[in-house]
Amino acid sequence: MTTAPATVTQATVLDDLDSRPGSTTSLLRTVVGSTVRAHGGWMSAAAFVALMETVEVPAGRTRTTLTRLKARGLLVPEARDGRAGYALSEGALRMLARGDRRIHHPRFMGEHDHWCLVSFSVPETNRDVRHQLRRRLSWIGCGTVAAGLWICPAYLAEEVQQIVADLGLDGRVTLFVVDRIHGVTDLSAAVAQWWDLDALRARHDEFLVAGAGAVDAYRRDPTPATAFRTWIRVLDAWRPIPYLDPGLPLAFLPADWPARRSIPLFLEVRDSVATAAGEYVDRVLGAGDTPM
Description:
12 helices, globular, alpha+beta, disordered N terminus
């Protein structure tokens, strides 16, 4: 079978989690995802520059990164009322809608909930597509049982099916939904083998430090601009975590698993500053894209 390279490239780019939190690319993606839909799916280039300057990113870097996001299929150039700007692509709208659930409604599997097993066999002639399949499965939090057998909570099955369809791999991938896993005497040990828990822990720990620092900054200076800067910094640090961490059953995780603290911190910050941050965006746009 053949797979259209354009389809693979677009789907992969839109779900790209490679950009490091805190980098210009990551911060701009976070600004795009958290502001543009609330303003008709379009924003002027000047507005992006103004908002990124609020999070301490220089205008030149923002303009360069806007060009990169356009090349990656996230944004589409579009002028309105004589102003240069960007609209969200259709693929970006779908991606952001999927992300809303993960980012703002984190969840854990119950100890007795179902699992989804993902079995695939992709020939060597399609190794690039096979690589993309493995990469994207890891991006939604799947664990690796064996080279061609991956595992995730059953509530991620629909996302797995979407990845398979995007990559044109129908017929090469089979999903099984099961209520128990036999042959494993210690499921906690198996989970630690199938997922890189140390890497996930590091992500949560980094967020806890970044989130606490942003909250302290806002408490010292509770202005609208600081609310926006706090929200974007916290959201940017948090955004990859609910993709890479699938929400495994707490019963199979270490007792000090940091998600027990990072999730409440994220939700607390969101509830405290997101509204004020949104009002700041409205004020910036109403003032002709000039920070206030």
